[in-house]
Design goal:
Helix content: 40-55%
Largest sheet: 3 strands, antiparallel
Shape: rod-shaped
Strand content: 15-25%
Number of helices: 2
Strand order of the largest sheet: 1-2-3
Length: 121
Amino acid sequence: MMVAMLLFMLGVLGLVGLQGAMTRAQTDSKVRADAAFLASDVVGRMWSDLANMASYDGTGCASQARCKEWQTKVANDLPRGTGTVAVTATTGDVAITINWTMPNGDAHQYVTHTTVAKSGS
């Protein structure tokens, strides 16, 4: 009887550990998906604001209302999240970097590159 109880308890502890690992993996996956969505969001903002595209670049981003709003959204949606945009105005090349740190201290980064340019540019 004692051996059966020991085996049962080990099985229960294993299931609890598995549940914890699944929850961590699901949380990490959701945050990565949120980061990808936020990167797409700023690209959409840039496409709808081509005249001011250069103002999305680097530290000047905070002075551009739409970009500052996006940075605030990144900070609110991701744990300790920050977002930066690098724009090469002459070519329309854009690099978006989103960083976040999970509560357990794991640092993550999502980087994407695209081109946002007027037709014929």
